[in-house]
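INTERNAL AUDIT FORM
Audit reference: QA-55
Scope: verify that the stored structure record matches its stored sequence.
Auditor: D.O.
Record contents follow.
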Amino acid sequence: MGAMTSLASIGLNAAMSRSQTKDDNRAIQEDEALRVAEVRAKDVADREVRAQRLKELQAKQKARSAGTGAGTSGGSSAALLRGLRKKALTEDELAVEERELAIRGIKQRAATQQRRNLLESDSRLVSDGVRGAFGLGRSLLDL
């Protein structure tokens, strides 16, 4: 009878461990999705701020050029406007790289957590199986 109780206990522990691992993995995935969404939302907001700042700088430069009578269609004024656009594009490219790096880090940490959960679950199952097979950790009720 003791062997059957041990086997039943091992089976129950295995089912509960798998269920817990699935729940943990689901929570990790939800947290990952939330963090990725936060990074993307911050990126969109930052991009809008950079675009607005570029418009303001361009408007100020055009106003300066018009105030000095230089105009905005050629010469140094046009070069300054191109420089502002180029700088904004460079900032956007860097922001995209930062965003992708942050998302990759979030996904790697989540995958590592899921692997760790699976290994811990497997380790518990093996440990429980060894204890059950060799009668270790038996209670007086199993005798």
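Auditor finding: record pair retrieved intact. Residues 138-143 have pLDDT under 50 and may be disordered.
Action required: none
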